[in-house]
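quick one
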Amino acid sequence: MEKLLADRTAKIDASGIRKVFALAQSLENPVNLSIGQPDFDVPDELKSAAIEAIKGGLNKYSMSAGDDALRNKIAARLSDGIGWDKPNVMITSGVSGGLLLCFLSLINPGDEVIIPDPYFVIYKHIVNMLGGKCVFIDTYPDFDLPVEAISEAITEKTKLIIINSPCNPTGKVYSSEKLEKLAEVASKKGVPVMSDEIYEEFSYDQDCPTIASYYDKTLILGGFGKAYAMTGWRLGYAAVSDAMAELLEQMVKIQQYTFVCPPTPFQQAAIAALDYDISPMVDKYRHKRDLVYNGLKDKFEVSLPQGAFYAFVKAPGGSATEFVAKAIKNNCLIIPGNVFSEKDTHFRLSYAASDEDIEKGIAILRKLAE
Ligand SMILES: Cc1ncc(COP(=O)(O)O)c(C=O)c1O
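structure w/ pyridoxal-5'-phosphate:
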């Protein structure tokens, strides 16, 4: 045997994030503004729903596509919100599970996938692993949806356009006007859109619109982890209209032979979650967003994040990696932009932290900017 590992393992470069963790290891009690999950715990009511499901014996495999009651409840919501007639829904093991199934079902080696940059890390690495080609579209400095540039980048080989609003890492929420324009472009060229809506509930100044309202060749990926602080329960969903039913069928087939099914008892908690009002949490996160923006805007180049729980801030001095190393030496954990981008000019700050830590972090960063 010449080589133990498959070539695809070399297509994932995790060195950027590893360096951050290596630097951070020496810190005792860091101000941690690097984490992409809520600082609150799962609401008690939803914990009880999961515990009751476990005690009640719902511990075996579920259907490959997930629990019917949960799928139907999500479908009813989507059909009210988007106007799709009877959406096709499957439950996935987190949104990451949905991403993998979507890419496995769509991408052949050499296929192109259009991705606005900055982007959520997983997209790039799975597309590369499958031999696809990421076509990044620069969205700096305002991070808005680059409809014209996307239109120009579409070729015969384009298989998919990915969008993520509210966006990790920029906090941008795309307007319905922009989404409608992208829908026109994609529809003219017949290219499907994957819309990652995991932060849908965390939109602070408006309801978050979806491209699915304008385009029936949309695959929606939604999640439960961020909204209900249950990231470790690994739950998400994928939904399409009839125009993309064959994609969802293939995703279910591949789920059957990979993940097998999403976690059974937690799907019961997800049914309860859909009736749980998280607006008090969203209000708290709006306040955290304001703390960060008002605390940084006179010293840093930063635009007001409209959603998710991140600010994407220009690093003084030009190199994000160098600035982040300095911040970590001063006890503040943030992530360099090159983990989420082909550029290394910005850093991502997560305000999914206590107000106290946010204030401490802002004080450290302000000092470093002086
Ligand atoms: C934009 C985006 N999509 C997907 C995911 C993955 O979510 P999950 O934990 O449900 O797999 C994340 C997690 O950080 C994310 O930020």
